[in-house]
Amino acid sequence: MPLTHPNRPLPAASSRSTVTLSRLASYIGGVSVAKMSEATLQSVKDCVLDCVTAAIAGSQETGASAARAVAGSAFGAGRSSVWFTGAMVPASAAVLANCNAASILDLDDGHRAATGHPGAAIIPACLAVAEEVDASWEELAAAIVVGYEVAVRVAAGRDFSRLDTMSTGKWCNYGVAAAVGRLRGLDHDQLVQAMAIAGVHGPNQSAAGYSKVMGNHAKEGIPWSTLTGVVAVDLAASGFTGPTDILDHPAYFEASNIVRGLGRSAAIERVYFKPYSCCRWAHAAIDGLTDILEHDGLRVDAVEHVEVHTFARALKLNNDVDPETLEGAQYSVPFVLGVAAQYGREALLPLSDNRLHDEKAVDFARRVNLFVDPTLDNRFPETTAARIILKTATGQHMREVLYPLGDPDNPMARDKLMEKFDGATRSYDTADFKPAFAAFDEGDYWPLVTLLRQPLRPAGASA
Hints:
The chain has 19 helices and 8 strands. By secondary structure, it is α+β, with helices and mostly antiparallel strands. The chain has 2 domains: about 15-270, 2-methylcitrate dehydratase PrpD, CATH 1.10.4100.10; about 280-400, CATH 3.30.1330.120. The longest helix has 21 residues, at about 40-60.
């Protein structure tokens, strides 16, 4: 439940020290579903569908199970659901569990301007708090749009060339604080403080950039960053303050980029969706590989060498040819290419740990070499492009993919997102979710929440 504190007045801050956060807070207060375009509203519906897809698919992974156990035991009772368990906990605990499920398989949505994944933070946070405060569908939708907008803008306001890590946990907390603050009715000054607190208290994540152990459950820090954003709202409402000029230092943020065009368009409309449960930086190469194998009549056993020419950041993934963990596999371009080559695209929806140490996949992965292409590198992060060349004894086959499937410039339409749902959740009986998604699209989110509160049934199990 929300804290039972009064909304205490906050000390006045100098306008010079709150310029960017103040602009964002003014935007947050002015968002209205009545003013949204059909494209924006459809994006909200698609993002909710996609987040639930990822969460169902990832629900039984070890990291997700561990987070559920902690959420159910360490935080007490509340009014937000731990998905698929029936447990009711405070929103801060719910997001720890639900964000883990949504992000653990690397199947969640992303945004090129942010180089990360807003949906696995914003959607669970908004649903958790909507449950607590019994928000209307319109309030929930507005909060989701606000969350994506603020998170993506803060992320895009950084100098990517100076970052030690692209981890989403470094910036999604701003969007969470914005969305949750909107749902809980914070005033302008409280919103400023909530975003400031979330920003300074967010996870460091630097080890995600330098550690060689990418096969771990911490990944991009999305769940803990989301928890930080939720708690920041309670702190701000209780009178707690933060560094309100946090976004106004050129050494860290380009403030003008954060607020430029604010309110004229919606960042959520430019989300990308992922057809494969692995790092987005591998998707262009997967698309190219599978297109060659499906259309050029090339047998996998005829491929002697594989070259992937792409952007430099992709070569900083662990890229183990025989990864030890599922998370490590998600960050290996050679290995996921091996799985796709030997077992097809569907083996990546989702990628499962029964593929680890697969002899055929590893054998293909050993044939893969990665190279930096200066032209494609210059296009990052606007695109995550790759050129893949399969060499045989008699010649070579090449594809260049500038926009992998699911990108706004190569989109997955609603029917493709439903196909993704069917494929990613095929281990479970999810028939009841489709009418719940339809109800959500018509303005009622409670049928979906009701299903999220219930344990999943294996496919084929009797009701």
